[in-house]
Amino acid sequence: MKRTILFVLVALGALLAACATPTVAPTAAPAPTAAPAPTTAPAQPTAAAAPKPSGEPIKIGIIAAMSGTNAVLGDWMKKGVSLAVDQKNKAGGIQGRQIQLVIYDDEADPTKSVNLAQKVATEDKVIAVWATSNSTSALADIPIFAKYKIPQFTNGTNVDITNKGSAFIFRATPAGPSFEDTLVDFLVKQKGFKKFAIIADTSAYGKGEGDYQVDALKRNGLTATTREAFGIDDKDFTGQLTKILQGQPDVILLASSEVASGLIAKQARQLGFKGQFAGGAAIGTPKYIETAGADIAEGTVFTTPWLHDEANEMSKKFVEAYKAAYNETAEFHGANTYDGTTLLLLAMEKANPLTSENIAAELHKISGFKGLQGTFNVTDKGETITGTLVGIIKGGKLTVYTGK
Fold first, then answer.
1. How many whole angstroms separate alpha carbon 39 and alpha carbon 16?
2. Which of 50, 55, 47 is nearest to 14 (CA)?
3. pLDDT above 60 for 318
4. What region, left, alpha or beta, does residue 396 occupy, with left being phi > 0 and alpha being psi -120 to 50 degrees?
5. In the chain, N or C: fewer CB atoms in 10 Å?
6. Residue 36 DSSP label
7. All domains of the chain, ordered by start, with CATH?
8. What is the DSSP letter of 196?
């Protein structure tokens, strides 16, 4: 894939200087206007003559796990954001200025992420940032970007992300309960399963998803037979799975990364588990299938707000553009970062003057925007969309569950 070249530019002009000025506390979200009109997506770029770029490039930061167990998350984030930005730049950029991405690897380490957040805010002087691809690091970065009034996008699903009181945090996908409620309700009410075990990592993502699974089971009058935990970089789950299998569950609910979940599925089968695997965002990905192996992943149930449905014209165009850019099939994380970046670019177009604080204010006004994942309505807390659908892995592919 084509990598975005990192380089350092002279500090942005007076219009962006306010972005780097710290304040005592984040401002409250702007009050919603009465009955906002639906927000429409920007027109698709065409070969028509675009405005000639003028002025210094506008910087958007990306802080994500580009190495380690969660590296695939950072890669998907970078691709989704880059595709939207490349399309916008080809169409003339924002207010006649090109957009430059500044990309850093935090290795899913919250301490490294905070240091990078401080750097992009004060040295790189980004006007907005994607930070990060992991809930734990996203939570750690929130105070930095709230202090400097810089819009922060994330696809982390932990509910605490939007409960910190910042007017500058925005989630580009549904929160965790949307995934786990849909999943457990389906498995209980439509498939008739009664005995569930949970295995979750200790990150904010894994612990959160495990908690949402517990809550969803409780709503259905059930309690997990076992809940086991492990570190995000663990590779051997024999001990946890041995305890889980003693409870003879019908379903093992996975609440971890794509890689760890795939390894868990593989090791559970080796230990004799014959039942159902199921999980949320991380499970409905090609990385889970690759890690578990197609035979073991077959029949795994997952939930997601988007699958590459070519019957939908918007999705079809996105899938084609993604394939042309990266020579691979688009998946959910690339789609939600593309959606989030499209929202950001729309707010940047409307911000007058173009400052980070004005961009955040414009983001909070977005209502009725039609994206890949559905209709976006930005709340004061920074939530943008709800709702997931049930999928199943069939023939080594991610497919919508049809009951067949």
1. 25
2. 55
3. yes
4. left
5. C
6. P
7. 14-174+310-385 (3.40.50.2300), 176-304 (3.40.50.2300)
8. E
pTM value? 0.86
pLDDT of residue 308: 87
Distance CA 209, CA 380 (A): 23
3-class secondary-structure state, position 303: strand
How far apart CA 348 and CA 189 sit, in angstroms, is: 44
In the chain, % of residues over pLDDT 90:
84
CA distance 273 to 210: 20
In the prediction, which pLDDT does 246 show?
Answer: 98
47 Cβ partners below 8 Å, 6+ apart?
A: none
Report the SS3 class of residue 20: helix
Residue whose pair of structure tokens reads 């920007």 in the numeric block: 42
pLDDT per residue as tens digits for the range 90-133: 999 998 999 999 999 999 999 999 999 999 999 999 999 999 99
Q: 61, exposed or middle or buried, with CB in 10 Å at 0-12, 13-18, 19+?
A: buried
> How many Cα atoms are found within 13 Å in the side-chain-facing hemisphere of 143?
5
Residue 404, pLDDT score: 61
What own/partner pairs with CB < 8 Å and gap ≥ 24 does 138-144 have?
138/204, 139/110, 139/164, 139/204, 140/110, 140/111, 140/113, 140/114, 141/63, 141/110, 141/113, 141/114, 141/117, 142/166, 142/169, 144/114, 144/117, 144/118
C-alpha 64 chain-centroid distance: 11
The enclosing H or E element of 278 equals: strand 276-279
DSSP string, 41-92: PPPPP-SSPPPPP-SSPEEEEEEE--SSTTHHHHHHHHHHHHHHHHHHHHTT
Q: Taking a C-beta distance cutoff of 8 angstroms, is the pair 302, 183 a contact?
A: yes
pLDDT digits (tens, 9 = 90+) for 6-39: 332 333 333 333 333 333 343 444 443 333 344 4
What is the Cα Rg of the chain in Å?
21
Tokens of 281: 């965002």
